[in-house]
Amino acid sequence: MYKIAILVKQLNGGGAERSAGLISKIIESLGHDIYIVTLFDDISFPYAGKLINIGAFKNCSGSILNKFNRYYQLRKQLHQNKFDIVLDFRLKESVIREFLLNGLVFNTRMVNMVRSFHLKWYFPSSKLISKQIYNNYSGINTVSLKIEDEIERHFKFSNVSTIYSPLDIEYIQKKSKEKMLIEEDYIIAVGRLEPIKQFDKLLMAYKESVLPKENIKLYILGKGSQRTNLQNLITDLNLGNMVKLIPYNENPFMYMKNAKFLVLSSKNEGFPRVLLECLACETPVVSFNCNSGPSEIIIDKKNGLLVENQDFNALKDSIDILFLNKKLYRKCKANCLKSISKFSMESIALEWEQYINALVLKT
Predict the structure, then answer these.
(1) More confident residue, 186 or 107
(2) How is the beta sheet containing 304-307 ordered, strand by strand?
(3) Where are the alpha helices (H) located in the chain, listed in sequence order?
(4) Are 291 and 270 in contact, with CB atoms under 8 Å apart?
(5) What letter would DSSP give residue 343?
(6) What mean pLDDT, rounded, does the chain reach?
(7) Do domains 3-166+344-362 and 169-342 have the same CATH topology?
(8) What is the pTM of this model?
């Protein structure tokens, strides 16, 4: 049995944070002693193990002194607990901060958990500095083969591996069956209301599709800085009666279950959990073949439609096709569940057991 920590900004928000909670459950199920270390006091996703909430030391001032106090508390917890491995889910866009943390705070086997194809969030742009920091890491773990290839191509690291994000299919199906009062027909998009999701362009593609004429609504589920801009665009496009912005709900699965299908219009992703979660709700998907993840989840015309990356005309056409072609729709819907069996908690647990043992035995 090993003592393992998951270091994460918070346990709320997006797919990376939800994955951190699920991985904690997997590691506990393997018999290891698992800790969740959060930098912010924002806990809502399920998790296993013991919680070390560094965010509890944050005060309302947000001063530099308070920030250094929290890093001191983090260092104290890492040194006292003597973890065998720390899985680091944080974004790492500040070079100075990463040098300080790696020099003064971290004292054990570290794994850089890369959850997006946008590598600037996880590595300094300088290859030399990245190598100075991460060559000494026990591992760099990604959520897609495309990300792994890109890291190896760009930085020439040899300690990169991929384990897909786990999916608690039983939990999702249970939550998806909770009752909701909505009876109208709709498609859905889910994600942070930020530019990278391109919901503004999705609105225009939806307007040009056959769906508004067929009284099929568009629900956009999420929260973020673009909410006001999107609401204004909805008004400008005269879609006020057809599009609904729904605040992020702790149970998005009932919305997925009752949707006709989900649309993903992102500029890039890591490994979009929303596609897996929607398929677990037995709802087909339409998605750009963006970097990265969709091509490793969607089997085109089997469980959804994979669209040429960033071609919004093709996205609009695919929305029309999946709605109008009833035979194709029924086929995709019937294949949803069986298409994601390799992402189950049980399947991913086997990969994590092998990975953890290899990390500890390597050094």
Answers:
(1) 186
(2) 243-246, 217-221, 186-190, 262-264, 285-288, 304-307
(3) 15-29, 64-81, 95-100, 127-134, 145-155, 169-176, 199-208, 227-236, 253-258, 273-280, 312-324, 326-335, 345-362
(4) no
(5) G
(6) 93
(7) yes
(8) 0.85
Nearest to 47 by CA among 24, 76, 15: 24
**Residues 27-46: pLDDT tens digits?**
999 999 999 999 999 898 88
How distant is the alpha carbon of residue 246 from its chain centre?
19
Are residues 203 and 230 in contact, defined by beta-carbon separation less than 8 angstroms?
Answer: yes
Q: Show the tokens assigned to 123.
A: 């590595």
Q: What are phi and psi of 5, to 5 degrees?
A: -115, 145
CA distance 344 to 250: 21
Class of domain 169-342: alpha beta
Q: Residues in the chain, how many?
A: 363
Work out the pLDDT band at 62, boundaries 50, 70, 90.
low
User: Angle between the 312-324 and 326-335 helix axes, to the nearest 10 degrees?
Assistant: 90
Pick from 230, 228, 164, 243: nearest CA to 197: 230
Q: In what order do the strands lie in the sheet with 85-88?
A: 50-53, 33-38, 3-8, 85-88, 109-114, 139-142, 160-162
Give the sign of the dihedral formed by CA 295, CA 301, CA 304, CA 308.
positive
Residue with tokens 């994600």: 191
Closest alpha carbon to 345 in 37, 35, 22: 22
What the block records as the tokens of 358 is 């290899």
Name the residue ranges covered by the structural domains of the chain: 3-166+344-362, 169-342
Q: Which fold has domain 3-166+344-362?
A: Rossmann fold (3.40.50)
pLDDT digits (tens, 9 = 90+) for 329-356: 999 999 999 999 999 999 999 999 999 9
Q: How is residue 128 written in tokens?
A: 């030399």
